[in-house]
Amino acid sequence: MKKIAFIFTHVPHGASGGREGLDAVLATSALTEEIGLFFLSDGVFQLLSGQQPDQILMRNYIATFGVLALYDIEQCFICTDSMLERGINPDVALVIDAIRLNQQQMYERLSGYDVVLTF
């Protein structure tokens, strides 16, 4: 069974990449259990709690990340270097329980995946 990594690199609002990536993750979960989610660069904003997308007339899909456990998707990683570069405290509350890794550790984890998709 192939291991599939999904990398989120864009902010959650103002573009559809995050929602499309999440839809792809949920659809792929029916085909394999070997799924990893990686949040790098601006993608770290996807997991911040307390967002209010309705204030900018955007649809709130961030809460949907909470259903990942129902799909047995537990390998979720967030880059602490990316968080620090964006002024986010690495200890901030997230919408899911993501493993916090530095950039080097993220790339080491990614190297174990057969397929990598970026959103």
Describe this structure in words.
The structure is a single chain. With 119 residues, this protein is an alpha/beta fold. Helices cover 22% and strands 18% of the residues. Strand 1, helix 1 and strand 2 form a beta-alpha-beta unit. It starts with a strand and ends with a strand. The longest helix is centred in the N-terminal third of the chain and has 12 residues. The protein has a 5-stranded parallel beta sheet with strand order 4-3-2-1-5.
Cα separation of the termini:
22 Å
**Range of strand content:** 15-25%
SS-based class:
alpha/beta
Mean of residue pLDDT values: 87
Low-confidence segments: none
Sheet having the most strands: 5 strands, parallel
Shape: globular
Q: How many helices in DSSP terms?
A: 3
Radius of gyration in whole Å, from Cα? 13 Å
Pfam families: DsrE
Keywords: Transferase
Family: Belongs to the DsrF/TusC family.
Protein name: Sulfurtransferase complex subunit TusC
